[in-house]
Amino acid sequence: xxxxxxxxxxxxxxxxxxxxxxxxxxxxxxxxxxxxxxxxxxxxxxxxxxxxxxxxxxxxxxxxxxxxxxxxxxxxxxxxxxxxxxxxxxxxxxxxxxxxxxxxxxxxx
Length: 109
Fold this sequence. Notes:
The structure is a single chain. By secondary structure, the protein is α+β, with helices and mostly antiparallel strands. It is 30% helix and 14% strand. The chain contains four helices and three strands; from the N terminus they run E-E-H-E-H-H-H. The protein has helices at 32-42, 57-61, 67-73, 96-105, and strands spanning 3-8, 22-26, 53-56. Strands 2-1-3 form a three-stranded antiparallel β-sheet. It starts with a strand and ends with a helix.
């Protein structure tokens, strides 16, 4: 039984014009992780880039994916950097007993 695997790369320049970056046909049924490895091998990559969508023909025929969900699944998300919290006077213990408790808590006393 042959299985058709479609893939869409998030960083592909033709994503505005076409729905799929490409497709691969295999002679046997594959799981999703196996299909991702086959696509990576087809593209001569060790790993697929982030936000790469790999969908089988069976999933498409079952109606699990439509055009808008396919396009939104491959949108590159920009992560925000965590802001560094600066120490303030509120972080400093007020008394010597609190300092001793803090040192004991961290196993330093």
